[in-house]
Hints:
heterodimer; A: about 110 residues; mainly beta; six-stranded mixed beta sheet; four-stranded antiparallel beta sheet; B: about 110 residues; seven-stranded mixed beta sheet; globular
Amino acid sequence: xxxVTQMEGPxxxxxxxxxxxxxxxxxxxxxxLFWYVQYPGEGLQLLLKATKADDKGSNKGFEATYxxxxxxxxxxxxxVQVSDSxxxxxxxxxxxxxxxxxxxxxxxxxxxx
Amino acid sequence: DAGITQSPRHKVTETGTxxxxxxxxxxxxxxxxxxxxxxxHGLRLIHYSYGVKDTDKGEVSDGYSVSRSxxxxxxxxxxxxxxxxxxxYFCAISESTGGNGYTFGSGTRLTVV
Lengths: 113, 113
């Protein structure tokens, strides 16, 4: 079946540190991949996406590259800010059958000043 | 915002009572979804709709029903609420079959006592 595995959190960093949140997936065919972010008390917002192998999605200083060979889509940011504190969800939409978004369990990021 | 609202935002109800949550969109999107969010599980799909009066089950549909009588409204009903249905419920919409991701509402926090 289709599934997404994310690293356990929380990830605790100091401001300006480098961020990596790991995400790997299992899917038939070549899914589209997404990162969503959820700030406290809010819904999920699309952060970035990639639709084919070697695509790089980017937004607000965050980046993730679609790696078919390792079935991964790791989220990175060079210098985090306190305002980046949130829960980050990796997700996929398979390209076979009806396209329902499948989520990982989420990774909480805590950034301290 | 993408024009998707959920109501109520918070609700406390007693075990055994029926509860209806509402999702309203102004985007005229064909596809609508209900997810629940629980710690350690990420978001799990309850039901989805691919048109007026066209709905189908997701992975955690037991104890829930849905209705879509108009494009803009998607209702989720807990037929007889149980404590295991205490959760945060999110509605989402997509204009196509989801290749560009979904847009989420702000969520409804439901507590069953």
